[in-house]
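In the current project phase, the collection of sequences with tokenised folds has grown. A sample record is quoted in full directly below:
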Amino acid sequence: MAYGNGKMLNLRPTPSLPTAAHGTRRFWAIPSSSVIVFTSSYKAHLIIIARPTVASLSLKAKGSRPSRCIRHRWTDPWSHTIGQRCPGSHCRRHYLFQGPPLPKEIAEDLLNENKNRLVRTAIDASRADPVLAAALENAFAEALSKVESNASSRERKGCAGARSSAAVCSGRDGKSPIKAVTLRGLFADFIYCIAKYTRDDNGDRCGMALPTRGSHFETLDNECSAWVDEFELERSPGDKIMYGKEELKILIEEALKNTGYRGRDLAIQNCLFMVLSAITGLRPSSFAPSDKKLKEKKKYPIIQNVKVNLIGPLAFSSRLVINHLKGHNGDIAARVSFALEPVKYWYNVIFDPTVWFLCFFIMRDVLDKSADDVEKHTDFTFGYTPGCEKQPLFLKGAQGHFPEEVEVTTSKQLSQAVSKIAQNRGMAWTGSYAFRRAIATLWAKILNSEHADRLLAHGLDAGSLHNYVDGSSTHDLVAVALLERALTDEAKARLALGAMRGQAVIAVITLLEPLTKKKDGIVQNQFTSKLDLTTAQKEEINQTPIMQKLVLERYKLLDELKALLIISHNSNSNAVYEGKSQIKRLLSASVLKGGVTEEQCAHCLKVRERLCKAFDDEVAIRRQLCRELILRLRQDRQKMLIDYDGGSLAERKGAQHDAEQPSSILQDIIAPTDSTAASSFGV
């Protein structure tokens, strides 16, 4: 498996592993047990060597000359054309064939590391342990030499790319290896790529005929199972982070903090997104496009998908229609609708999705009513400003506000906003899927598995029940999510399970953690303090070999530039001239040695350009190393929060009580009218 500059686990060219050049790039010629993917601006083609059980998937460089047989570099590279048999004396069973250009959508998917786990895994695999990579290189070269000596597919040693992934790739925490389910997913992706994209000499799709020929599929399947034991991969999934009602309250308070003068627009959008995710359980890709293809085709919800209605004095309901669901973005779209009723108790107003819709629409000037006119509104339906119905529901923000040009945001940005808010609050951070997991668990406890499956939009395939039942609108999801409906004793017992282990309880307890003193004398809470690098950590980064090399290169270029110049007597004799901003000052205070000639000026300008580039490279690498170190520190804190077991029983109960209290946003605004509800909250 290769990417970018064509490196595969730092393997070096060997006689048994020939390379081939296309355009200005080189890539490894690997047998069918691996897939080559280039993440660059190449024109996508399929390069296939038509040999039994041998097929290589690659992206051919745009504008390059006709391809040669990548198995035998010693033959005349341009003596034969595409589709003809290779005339080499050692190449009797090889045919070279360039398949038709891949559709633009497929080519973009292959290059999209966010969608294609093969590309993402290749990138992770490039960060290999050198010792382990060398061992894999030797084993792979030995296995490949046996394959070259005997073309029988039964003697193949398995998929080197997936094998390397199992041994080298790290999990999401950057330390532990991948899990068994990830390896199995990579195997499924690999077989899928062969079945869908590989073509024969006639340009026809091979399908599953190629991997199943000669027991190749069975061999890979058995190897994949054996690697789980060989590399001792974790077979069970890890603990999942869930955000319920209490966590949602904390996140809303954190999102609105310090937004009185700046950033309120984007904060309200984030709150609306979190509330809708917590109540409907929809994926973030249903609220905003997940890639630019869906954005170009306008496959995302718009203002018109929301209908706000007046059902009583200052009582509002809304109906949300979503037509963009996972697996249903093709020719025929699925559709789910949600009837979002108002909350029944004052202390739940902060979770009312219709209230957030009104705030969001008034802020964007989408409603045909002003904020003062909402109270006087008597019509059943709220209208929208003409021309605004087709605007995206969620907008792309910049520096805490929305720019004048309306542009839809992405699902990744929405999910990352949730993660950032959780990090700022000192909670175990994750994306918006934490809301989906929590509400799915709640539905399973209060309703049943069948209803939960339909509400999660899993049962959308054609069938008699699907044709007649509007599953999402048959429940008051707001009342279910906020526990405002009558519950049986069994449901109450289920909800009480694990209540003191929630992230909201941990977030309250960790605020009371004692302060610790760092090496720099800074006193901070290890869970809630802002992650900033200390002076010692920054110095440690400066002492890394790569930074030392860049600094040495910069000083060499600076000395080379100074050697070409004579500093004027009128300039400051104590000036150091070491920073990038001082290069221009150095040139203005100096004259060239040996007189001003065209060659001298050109040489001086080249040295100056190289020096400026050295400065930029040094800053970029230092910034990258700092980001990686902060990410590791954040992952360590994340693990501590997930595994946190501190606090006494009394502290846990107190934290649970505090987490269940009404939001501080409402306590000073709305007076309780329900004495029973007020007393239950201790108000």
Residues 19-230 form one domain. Residues 1-102, 118-134, 143-163, 671-683 have pLDDT under 50 and may be disordered.
